[in-house]
Specification:
Layout lengths: L1 E2 L12 E2 L4 E4 L6 E4 L2 H8 L3 H11 L4 E5 L6 E6 L4 H16 L9 E6 L2 E6 L5 E3 L5 H8 L3 E3 L6 E3 L9 H4 L1
Antiparallel strand pairs: 1-2, 3-4, 4-6, 5-6, 7-8, 8-9, 10-11
């Protein structure tokens, strides 16, 4: 188990995620890296696994493939190219800093939401509510595929439609 982000060296740190398990497939020009347990990593980060996969693709200038074949256990998260766990962990830490950790308290307690054309976050640990990085290439993907939210009454996961109306001056305060 690794700390979230992995740059934190405290052995008793409570925010932890599994180490990514990679499987190199094919050889030569068609070499691919399959991230076997990306679903578990995303669950511990409380985010969508496709966001992480797309972020890897943008940062490593490589195409990515998400294949779901008969349930969550048979899902393939593939990035074209030969990558080591250490390389992808550094990129994952960058994703965590941008979208998972609070800019104010630095704890991985952010909840993403999409309002208009902006990605916003709300921290569970401190009173931070504000905009996250909406300029990264991943932001367009997040805006088109907004995060899922849990219905507090039923406990079921529901898709939250993006609010396309921009905030007025009184709502921004």
């Amino acid at each position: 188990m690794l700390n979230i982000p992995s740059t934190v060296v405290d052995p008793k740190y409570r925010y932890r995620m599994p180490k990514m398990q990679l499987k190199i497939e094919s050889k030569g020009n068609g070499i691919k890296t399959n991230i076997v347990n990306l679903g578990e990593v995303a669950r511990d980060l409380r985010t969508n696994e496709q966001y992480i996969l797309k972020f890897f693709g943008f940062e490593k200038a490589s195409s990515t493939t998400f294949k779901e074949a008969g349930g969550k256990n048979n899902t393939n998260y593939i990035i074209n190219g030969d990558f080591s766990e250490e390389e992808l962990r550094k990129v994952l830490d960058k994703f965590i800093e941008k979208y998972i950790c609070c800019p104010k308290c630095k704890l991985p307690e952010m909840h993403m939401s999409v309002i208009g054309e902006k990605i916003n976050g709300k921290c569970d640990s401190c009173p931070f509510v504000g905009e996250l990085d909406s300029k990264h290439s991943l932001a367009k993907f997040i805006i088109k595929n907004p995060p899922l939210a849990k219905n507090m009454a039923t406990g079921k996961v529901v898709k939250v439609e993006a609010d396309k109306t921009p905030l007025t001056a009184t709502e921004k305060k």
